[in-house]
Amino acid sequence: MQKNTDIQFRHLGLIDYQEAWDYQDKLFTATLDIKVKNRAAGPDEQTPTPNYLLFCQHPHVYTLGKSGHEEHLLLNQEGLQAKGATYYKINRGGDITYHGPGQIVGYPILDLENYFTDIHKYLRFLEEAIILTLADYGVVAGRIAGLTGVWLDHEAQRNPRKICAMGVKCSRWVTMHGFAFNINTDLDYFNNIVPCGISDKAVTSLAKELGHEVPLAEVEEKLLKHLAALFGANITTAAHEERH
Question: Which residues does the annotation list for site: Lowers pKa of active site Cys (predicted)?
Fold first, then answer.
């Protein structure tokens, strides 16, 4: 069966976290179902699996990965309500993080068998797309050994600060969840958690580093270009479909 490297891009706008999670899960499950049916089908009867990339923003929300620690959320229920924030325990890797307006949240639902079967390479590609996008703005970023995500001052580490958090799930080489890239994000919300379980490093945004806000659509366009090049994919904007 020929591999399908095309990616259908869908922009969900500002969307409730649970609604976006349900939509991700719908696409993820449908792709898994195709793979299960393909295993039982002959070579000429197999259906190519689709690939999706979702961009969105969320209202203020904290999410805790399956390997995370609840004590890294520093707010009780009353505190969450006072901040206008919600809280979810979810099935991605990683610890706790924050999503909110001014942040590009990316959810790739890719069948990695269409590209390569290496989850570490996949994470490095996501990181590299962010690093290249930041370079377009003259911001030098990179990786810190042992820590997922994208960091500034990653080499000297005098004031290392995270600008993009990552946490993914992968089953039968199909991915879900993804990355949260701080552009015009209200960083005060990170004060209510131990971000990604790391207490000795700061969090930043592109706006903070540049000293002015940046149009999200402009950053998204650059990010899509780098993702397409890294994965060797043709990214097309899919027609809107009912998410429920």
Answer: 162
Annotated ligand binding at 125? The verdict is no
Specify the CATH number for the domain of residue 147.
Answer: 3.30.930.10
User: What are the distances in angstroms from CA 210 to CA 27, 143, 224?
Assistant: 36, 20, 21
* 103 Cα distance to chain centroid: 10
Q: Is 130 annotated as a binding residue?
A: no
Q: How many CA atoms lie within 13 A of 236 on its CB side?
A: 10
**How many domains, in total, are found in the chain?**
1
Write the pLDDT tens digit of every residue in 128-160. Answer: 999 999 999 999 999 999 888 999 999 999 999
The rounded percent of the chain whose pLDDT value lies above 70 is 94
92 marked ligand binding residue:
yes
Q: State if pTM tops 0.85.
A: yes
Structural domain that includes position 210: 7-237
